[in-house]
Amino acid sequence: MKILNKTLLSFRPLTCLSALVMLAAGTPSAGAQLKVVTTTPDLASITEKIGGEAVAVVSLARGTDNPHHIRPRPAFSRHLAEADVLVVVGLDLEHAWLPSLLANVRNNRIRPGRVGHFDASRGIDVIGVAAGPVDHAHGHAHTHGEGNHHYLLDPANALIVAENIANRLTRLDEDNAERFRENLARFRETLEEKMAEWEAALEPYRGTHVVTYHATYDYFARRYGFEIIDTLEPAPGIEPTPRHISRLIPRMREENVRMVWSEPVRPTRLLLRLAGDTDAAIVELAEFPGAVNGIDTYLDLIDHNVRRIVEAMER
To answer: Given strand 209-212, what is the order of strands in its sheet?
Structure first.
């Protein structure tokens, strides 16, 4: 997948009347690519599959970024100013950095409530919606009271997102509606074939107890039948404490925890200690395309994670 990071194509000339109509509608002119900005690389990969040659896609976050704490780069404002569509993960993932960017960009097309602002979490069966008061004292999952926003690590949710993206692109570019439908059908067929492969590969390990560093892989675990007994973080977004780890180690031994799932960016010293004290395998799983070399697309992402788990369980 090539995520564009350059000046996008110009519109074709229009008659004065047509130009006024397009300007009022806030949509690109006939024949021009839709300029799509996504907040994360997984959304960019799916959008490019659905849009094909009719879209030019930029992801604000890189595969190695922590999506909760993106440090805006100078190009962000330009990309947002030029965008026809902004696709967000939603569930408050971007709450710490995106609203301030949008407030300072002169582009009404992509503001919340406009047709050019699309929340990809629509229709997702969300895990971890806060039942009580929302505050900063209990980690960012409680600040994000709408629920766990790592839903795209369940490939079934990628099908929902792809269909929603196809519908939104069609609203903005009806001339390419048939292309979007055909691309969606191809993506669905390919993803469903891969889902059958992933299901078969992981079926022998259903019920396996695991610990995760952060609540990143809850949707993945739910899809494939793994039981997450705890996280290294005492609360989402709160770094591990010696007290929490000292309590977790005997529990991991007692419950025969086979694996600790962690993103590649997490500190290795603590993970190595857990491996030595519990004999659990440390398994680095990616969250986004681009997190490690060789993961270029959404399908590559899930392939990588399934392969790493199988390798760990067969050791």
So the answer is: 227-231, 209-212, 259-262, 281-284
Consecutive H or E run containing 228: strand 227-231
Furthest-apart CA pair in the chain: how many Å? Answer: 74
Instruction: Return the H-helix or E-strand segment holding 221.
Output: helix 218-224
At 281, phi and psi to the nearest 5? Answer: -80, 135
Give the chain's length.
315
Report the interhelical angle of 298-313 vs 177-202 (nearest 10°): 0
Convert the pLDDT of each residue in 95-139 to its tens digit. 999 999 999 999 999 999 999 999 999 999 999 876 555 554 444
Indicate if the pLDDT at residue 295 is higher than 70: yes
pTM for this one? 0.87
Q: From CA 281, how far away is CA 315, in angstroms rounded?
A: 9
211 touches 312 (CB < 8 A): no
Kindly indicate whether the domain formed by 16-195 is annotated with CATH number 3.40.50.1980.
yes
> Per-domain residue ranges for the chain?
16-195, 198-313
215 alpha carbon, distance to own chain's centre? 13
128 CB-side CA count, 13 A? 23
Average pLDDT, the chain: 88
CATH homologous superfamily of 198-313 equals Nitrogenase molybdenum iron protein domain (3.40.50.1980)
CA 118 from chain centre, in angstroms, equals 14
What is the CB neighbour count within 10 angstroms for residue 97? Answer: 18
Is there a shared CATH topology between the 16-195 domain and the 198-313 domain? Answer: yes
Question: Helix-strand-coil percent breakdown of the chain, rounded to 5?
Answer: 45, 10, 40
